[in-house]
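Changelog-linked ticket: iron/sulfur cluster example.
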Amino acid sequence: MDMDRRQFFKACTGGLAGSSLALLGFSPEAVLAETRNFKLTHATETRNTCTYCSVGCGIIMYGLGDKAKNAASAIIHIEGDPDHPVNRGTLCPKGAALLDLVHSQSRLKYPQVREAGADTWTTISWDEALDRIARLMKDDRDRHFVARNGEGATVNRWLSTGMLAASASSNESGYLTHKVMRSLGMLIFDNQARV
Ligand code: SF4
């Protein structure tokens, strides 16, 4: 488009006036005045521990669905907990990718059992799993508990079953687990969180 010097200054002045008015809020387009919605604004915060390794970093999980009846809940964001004494808000790359684990199609959500000789796993209920574990532990302890050693000294040992506690245990649950297992006479006991 051809334009002389006078027309050029006229166009510039018009454009400047238009954009200034828009910045002052007189724009017919609301877009300039609109603030962006923060994606966590309506999320519920839940504190937890990273499930991956024995460092036990603290995390905050943000979930949609404020427990209203018609709201479908879903975890939409996970980040390090700045108040947690272990990691002070930081996460390693594995922890930073926790959201993928939460939504993974192959994540195991229920107890499963593979019977002796079977080549497939069967899903069972939590009640069944806990009853089964308790039954097997009791039977094994009854069979193998050693009250006294060869010299007649009281030892109260149960050496045929072991326990591995999870890395995400708190101090309190770790303490209680230790007490319960030792009170049964179990000596083979370890905790993943022992770094
Ligand atoms: S964030 Fe990384 S270092 Fe921390 S517990 Fe998870 S896997 Fe371990």
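Closing comment: Example verified and attached. The beta strands are 44-49, 58-64, 74-80, 112-113, 122-123, 146-148, 154-165, 186-191. The chain has five helices and eight strands.
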